[in-house]
């Protein structure tokens, strides 16, 4: 949703407010950075998350300083960044990056129901490693009790996207300086078993061949 | 430097305060996320940066809302995250990620001297694309005037690092569930010239072969 907070002061043409665009960026990102402030002092922390419909879900230890502050329902800002490429222009000034980013302004709602907490942990785990959860040793009540799950509405979220070639000044366009894009990609390398798993078959969802 | 703010409430054994460790993470990261608060409302923004000795340098448009807030010298929190791997345990509870992260608490100092501003832009450009600057059309006074450069001391910075295999509960160790690590890597793909550069040779610093 476009609000004063989600309207950028610069490059407004890069701003997007459609849910589909925002969801696709959130669904691809492996972590988010959550910021909050206490007495004017900002704090921020990278953390795993998942999206369920119009909510973003995180989890953490019930004892964590971060969780205990944020669960109070103070305002947070959640930032997600996918860096897609380096944009090389003919001047330093026109250098840029291609990216897809999302910012969310929200307050935490604590997820209390046991099944909903488990569901959030399933979503967070399967977001990072699709199909993982069914293989795991079943969760225990103690583990769920020790875990806080927080949900954040995506109502006040916006995306910013830059794609494509550099935009050099017209007077620079014919300079014999190489310009273009270096695409960046996050890749998953071959899975490395720990000592307990060298004789176990690699699960189908971890195969890269 | 270890201060109350840089001492984690959880997993204290993952915390590091040596300059070398902090610098190496900052030097590898392609962007940082800067957070600040106005009237208790946190804001955060991903941005390019460079490190020079014990300072972190960023740049932005003189007109940007973000720059104009931060240049006032309000407290900021700078977060850098390198996600090195997904850590798959035999229980959901013991799943984790391998990462190297840095958090910096600081306030901005505006870099005013012309040559120091140019130097910061050289460092930021060459951090993302080593050796790039000497190839570029020379900066103009107008470009430098339109750009704000801010410096942040790294005095109050700390790193958190997790490496290695999953740590399952002893009673789970013999379960026939595959456990181990999926390494993650950010790769630069082959450079793509824009229309002006298809006939120009690829600079040596962009070659990947």
TrEMBL record, chains A, B:
Coiled-coil intervals, chain numbering: none
InterPro entries referenced in this protein's UniProt entry, alphabetically: Pyridox_Oxase-rel, Split_barrel_FMN-bd
Record's protein name: Pyridoxamine 5'-phosphate oxidase family protein
Species per Swiss-Prot/TrEMBL record: Larkinella knui
């Amino acid at each position: 949703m476009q609000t004063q907070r989600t309207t950028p002061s610069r490059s407004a043409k890069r701003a997007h407010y459609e849910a589909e665009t925002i969801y696709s960026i959130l669904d691809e990102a492996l972590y988010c950075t959550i910021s909050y402030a206490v007495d004017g002092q900002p704090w921020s922390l990278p953390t795993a998350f998942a999206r369920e419909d119009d909510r973003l879900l995180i989890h953490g230890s019930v004892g964590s300083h971060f969780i205990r502050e944020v669960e109070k329902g103070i305002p947070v800002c959640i930032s997600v960044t996918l860096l897609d490429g380096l944009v090389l222009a003919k001047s330093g000034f026109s250098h840029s990056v291609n990216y897809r980013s999302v910012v969310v302004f929200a307050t935490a709602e604590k997820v209390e129901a046991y099944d909903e907490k488990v569901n959030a942990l399933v979503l967070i785990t399967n977001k990072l490693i699709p199909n993982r959860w069914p293989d795991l040793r079943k969760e225990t009540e103690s583990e769920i009790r020790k875990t806080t799950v927080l949900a954040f509405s995506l109502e006040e979220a916006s995306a910013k996207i830059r794609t494509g070639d550099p935009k050099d000044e017209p007077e620079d366009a014919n300079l014999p300086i190489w310009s273009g894009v270096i695409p960046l990609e996050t890749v998953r390398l071959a899975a490395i078993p720990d000592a307990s798993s060298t004789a176990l078959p690699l699960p189908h969802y971890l195969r890269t061949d």
